[in-house]
Amino acid sequence: MFQRFASLVKAFLNSIMGKMEDPEMMLEQTYQELQSNLIQVRQAVAQAIATEKQLEQQLQKNKDQAATWHNRASMAVQQSNDDLARQALQRKTQYAQAANDLETQLRSQKEATNTLRQRLTELEGEVQKAYTKKQVLIARDKAAQATSKANEILSKTTADGALSVMDKMEQKVLERESKAAAYAELGSDNLDKKFKSFEGQVDIEAELMALKGMGPGPKLIVEKKEPAYVDSADLVDVEDSEK
């Protein structure tokens, strides 16, 4: 029981190792990893673009606020309210400074976004090349497997392979035919055959000897005739003449 379990575990591990070394599976796995990286880079580019848009919006808002407080400072000056004008100018300065900081950040963000976009384009090209190469390698691997299988079959189709088996089967067929003939012979009346053959040989030998003058020839069929009637007077005349 333990040996059977150990054999099953060993077979399972060998199956896993065989799949791990399978070129098609490894190529598919590698391609899926590239696809996953491509998706992550696309998400990063999308996030970078979104951040860039947000910075642009914030920059525009700060510029608008700076302009608004600049106008308010002008209104305060027109009303001869220098204190209110100073407060408005301070607020304008805050928004202007924020706008300057946002412009610097936006430039950096645009550079990062452009770099990511370029990297995304390169990665998309690499993924496309990887897909093409994967398809080619899988096709080559399948062709190699088919060729290997065909060569394996051809290597077995030799005199020691299929032809040898056919020769053995032919010998078995001959043996079975011989047995069938033997059973047929045993099922017939051999004694009757022997006598018929013997009788035929005797008739031939007898006829041959007759032809050579070494024995009685073939029997002739003599036609039987009725005896003729003879008168007694005729018999006396015959006897007297012989004397």
What do you see in this structure?
This protein is mainly alpha-helical and 243 residues long. It has 2 domains: 18-156; 164-216. It has helices at 2-20, 23-78, 82-156, 162-186, 190-211, 232-242. Residues 217-225 and 235-239 have low confidence and may be disordered.
List the helices and strands and how they pair.
Elements (H helix, E strand, L loop, with lengths): L1 H19 L2 H56 L3 H75 L5 H25 L3 H22 L20 H11 L1
Radius of gyration: 62 Å
| Percentage of residues in strands | under 5%
Q: Give a count of the beta strands, DSSP E runs of length 2 or more.
A: 0
SS class: mainly alpha
H-E order: HHHHHH
What is the count of helical runs?
6
- The level of helicity is over 70%
Cα-to-Cα separation, first versus last residue: 132 Å
Main sheet properties: none
The domain tally reads 2
Mean pLDDT across every amino acid position: 78
Outline the low-pLDDT stretches.
Answer: 217-225, 235-239
Q: What coarse outline follows from CA principal-axis ratios?
A: rod-shaped
Label this structure with key terms.
single chain, 243 residues, mainly alpha, 2 domains, 6 helices, rod-shaped
